[in-house]
Amino acid sequence: MKHRKCPFRANPLPSFTILAIVVFYMSTNFLHHNWTRDDPGRRGVIRWDVISYYSYLPATFIYGDVTLDFLDDPPEGFRNDDKFWPITLENGNRLIITSMGLSVLYAPFFFMAHALAPLFGEARDGFGSIYQFFLVFGALVYVILGLVVLKNLLLRYFKPRVTAVTLLAIAFGTNLLYYSTFEAAMSHSYNFFLIVLFMVTVIRWYEKPGVGWTLLTGALFGLIALVRPTNILVIFFLVLWDVKSWREFTARTGFFFRKFHLVLLMMAAFIMVWIPQLLYWKALTGQYFFFSYGAKGDAFYFLQPQVLNSLFSYKKGWFVYTPMMLLAVAGIPILWRRLRQFFFPVLLLLLSMIYVQSSWWCWWFGGGFGLRAYIDIYGIMAIPLAVMVEVILLRSRKFFRVAGIFLIAALVAFQLINTYQYWKRVIHHDGMNRQVYWKSFLRLKPPDGIQELMTIPDSDLAMKGIYVACYAGDQYREIAEMEPGKAIGRVKEMIREDPRLVRQIGRYARRNGVETEDAFSRVAESMYFRMIEKPESAR
User: 10 Å Cβ neighbour count for 141?
Assistant: First the structure.
């Protein structure tokens, strides 16, 4: 296919679109200015998962001890007020639970903050406002780079108008906005950049399979997996790009054999990126490969993926809280006719991503805005989304064109309102359900009494593959007033009335060699204690 050449002077619209996105994102950052919150234990940026993502940098370059043994005899004035969140292994070693990929991407901005801290009168402790500021704006740099790379990729296949609207839809019509600003230091904006760049390097590698593109593609692939190991699924794009039929798939296999030296070189580049992580695991666990999340009981349940919950639930459903992606998914069948080289990699990557993400024990991914795990592949989903935008803008009759433009604008407006709602806690981070969703729909302030209607997931049971959510209000007053033994019996009766829950408990019993009746009793007891006390999450 002949690619369009769209220099800036001839087609400035996509570049101006990115400029507008940058101004909006930057303004949003100054609106929330989370980096100014650096009170011990209540930091605005280095908190929750970011604590682990970031730990490698201060541990190595400030405290000189990535094993975290210094926590036993800390430096004068040091207090571990949510600075480090290691897990303690059976051998007594402390381990940072996340892999070090994000620390690699944070590093340039960490070192800038470290160099400038004295000029701003801040301690070089790795956790002050200046470090948090650079993490936030470092994320903005990566998002800008990701959008620029995506713009150039889209312009190879689509007209400038289509490219500009697609960029606006991705930037403002999805939860990429929230995770590039309010919680910018989370992994998603970084993965967005890496995967978009990976798409381009894969395409260039097939066009010109030389050593340079081989090394870059392999290193990027390794870094993507190091930041978030489940994103190794982008291998579908690497293997299936431009494969349009079974005959072409067999030809692709032959290509890999003919270029076996380059395949080995790509694998070597992948492994090189991982060497520091493997050595870290070996030093602390005695193993080169270690499932750190498993050490604290986390697991995948591949035989009971929560696909419908992941996509459509009021709790966190991807299509409920990011409906723009419905438009992108609708564009996948059109790829078969319009851009068949993208059809199989996009389809299989999306299906595998949905399966794996919905198989994680915490399918709702903790506290967060929408199903944030899917943000990572928005660059890939931009291709079918652009196909739909093209159909709307260029190939529809006037009525459908106007209706389509209105739909895209409405989806963007809806997402902006949702983002504001989540910021203002109208949308709760893990307590949503059908009733709460519709009572809060498009409201800018939380309705009175809404917390009483929330249902909070029981994380202890979820780690066992049993999914229960209990009301945060006093709906269980009758049970709370019963004698405990009788109350637990009543809860057990409630469980038996739910076939879905009965199946999950049965699977748990078989996996763990537990008598089914004993498993029912354990679950009923856990649910009882959750019912009689208000979950902390809803407060």
Answer: 15
